[in-house]
Amino acid sequence: AFTASRSTSSQAAPLRVSLAMIRARKNRISQVAFGTLAVACTLVIVAIAAAGKADGSNAALRSAMAASSVRMQTKSMPAMYRNQKPLFTLNQQGATTHVMLRKPTAARSQCMDRKVNVRAGQAPKIVSSTVMAPAISGVDALTMRAKQAETMGVQAVILDLDGVILDYEGAANHALNDALRKYNKSGNVGVDWTLHSKIMGLRIQETASVVLDSNRLLDRVDPEKFIQRYYENMEPLYTDLKLHEGAEEMIKSFKAKGIPMALATSSSRASMERKMTNYQHILDMFDCVITGDDASVNFGKKSPEMFLLAAERMQADPKKCLVLDDSPIAVASAKAAGMYVASVPDPQNRFTQDFTNGGPDFEVKSLKEFAKTEGIQKDELKRVVSSDLPKAEFNDMPLSVGFGTDLIHTATDGSLTCDDKILQAINAGYTLIDTATKYESEPDTGRAIKEAIANGMKREDFYVVTKVWVNDMGYASAIESVEKSLRRLQMDYVDLVLIHWPGPAPGKPDAQQFGFENKAKRTLTWRALEEMVRRGKVKSIGVANWTIRHLKETLSVAEIPPTVNQVEMHPYYTRTRLLNFCTDHGIKLMGYSPFGRGRLNIINDPVMGEIGSKYDKSGAQVILRWMIQRGVVPLPRASSENRIKQNFDIFDFKLTDDEMATIDKLNGDKRSCSIDCHSIP
User: Fold this and answer.
1) CA proximity to 437, closest of 484, 474, 396
2) Cα 195 vs. chain centroid, distance in angstroms?
3) pTM for this prediction
């Protein structure tokens, strides 16, 4: 700091020092620190100019100031702040501009539309825009779309378990303190259990480690034993769990209005049932229950796919679903799914943070008062009537065991190539070969079939399936994809082309947060496949990994309906509802991963062993026979010649109705694929 002299020499010296400091930024200070320093230097220069005499030296100073200003804007500003628009721009010509201001409350920030009327030579005058009337009585509207709604028509409501219905956190913290006192005489909890399990979304094992570490116990206390003691303390408290005040009245209110309801919780189904032991009558009011066993979770909290799955189970439009939750992570997930979100009473004031997607649309102060809200009305579900959807008239896919070529690679020593294995399958009796652009097995498939034809078979003896990958979705790109597949297969036509996935998987770099672009691409891709049928390049077209929601969408726009839907299917993931829908619409199912990719150990299930011993068959053969009798084409993968032959040897026995029913009962909706097609918007 210094006092500016009015002499030219005393003004120039600090100016030279300031600019020298600017030039030295790259060698001595970081960009952020330099940005602060540069601003300070500019203020010093302005102060000098204000203090100086109106003589020639001031002109030199003004020139130096302009040069330093340009220099700072182009070089000194950190990259993250460059090219950003200012909060507002003073327009000396009297033009009207819009300014985005933050709402001055501690609760959350808002984008408020204000008009700035600027006239030359006058200070800016802030004029508030028209104040809106309260949107819906009983709730505080926080976002613009909530403020604009006098009533809200919803097709379904999705409620959180612990934060909305059941008061679980108090009991959990009590059990935590009791467990901690065993090892810590003071009994102090350094990090509150609720803080980390609800805000950070940590799983209980991670939370236990954090709590122990904060109390300097992690080096001498096993987190697993600590968790076990916590559950022991929690056990007697389950019978004393209470409902949140007004929760039951609210649920009954939705029920009286005829609005479908889903219970969504990141807890396991067993944990949820344990918590709700005394409230079975509450569970009975819900149309569906989605738990952490049904869909993936984000950091231990509900993910967008969990909310989308709940909407699909109730056949509701996600954009017309209302979510009530108390977790910021769950709120962000529900907003990502395109749903209306209301935050429930939040004594910890966890919603003070800024949300990139705007945060909750509504804030509920009291569940009891919210139950009386008249502004939330039922919006009738516009279900697609099955009889109105077209059915496939042409479907010549044989009901047989297909040979899957995904991950069938050349042996490391080069002794057995992929096309050798496909030839082994053909020699064992397979005629349905499943390949895809993504598998990179189309050239091998083409070579193997070409060799089989040279040995006396005909092209018509084979049923060849390939697929359009996600990156090739679109009209022109899908047509080009099919043309390239034909060239790689060395064929004039292909029997069946599928769209591999409904869209990019959530979490992938090219994934869409909302489904409007996915829907457009699905439609354009389908139009491309219809065109390839008309050109005679493709005999049948279908889809893969489509849910009922995706199928209804495609059937509603299709001129040529899909004939096949290829999905994951096995005894632990029976897909019965999807199978029934496809059967009603002339769509055949192909089932990949019939053995759960080895991750689920299905072939060693005691049920398979018991049934297999009766027919002198392996567990794998029992599973494949079960799929054939359901009318599903199984697509097992195998590398050894013995396993290839064994998988096709299933046509000399038949399962009884009781045996089929026994296998059906093994369903637990457990998928082996890491991607859940329900999560793709």
Assistant:
1) 484
2) 24
3) 0.48
Model pLDDT for residues 341-353, shown as the tens digit of each residue: 888 876 555 554 4
CA distances from 654 to 571, 617, 644 (A): 17, 11, 20
Q: Which residue type sits at 321?
A: C
**439 flagged as catalytic:** yes
User: In sequence order, what DSSP letters do the residues of 239-288 get, joined into one string?
Assistant: GG-EEPTTHHHHHHHHHHTT--EEEE-SS-HHHHHHHTTT-HHHHTT-SE
pLDDT tens-place string over residues 402-442: 999 987 765 555 556 788 899 999 999 999 999 999 998 99
Residue with tokens 């529900």: 334
**φ, ψ at 125 (rounded to 5°):** -115, 120
Dist. CA 416–CA 34, nearest whole Å: 63
Contacts of 305 (CB under 8 A, 6+ apart): 295, 296, 506, 676, 678, 679
Instruction: Using the Cα atoms of residue 577, residue 580, residue 583 and residue 589 in order, give the sign of their dihedral.
Output: positive
CA neighbor of 291 nearest in space, from 318, 313, 272, 276: 272
Tell me how far apart the terminal alpha carbons of the chain are, to the nearest angstrom: 59
Q: Cβ distance 669 to 313 under 8 Å? A: no
Q: What 3-state class would DSSP assign to 592?
A: strand
CB of 288 within 8 A of CB of 659?
no
Give the C-alpha distances (Å, rounded to integers) separating 191 from 200, 241, 352.
12, 23, 20
Write down how long the chain is. Answer: 681
Return the amino acid letter for 597: R
Catalytic position from the list 168, 340, 439, 592: 439
Return the structure tokens found at 391: 């059915």
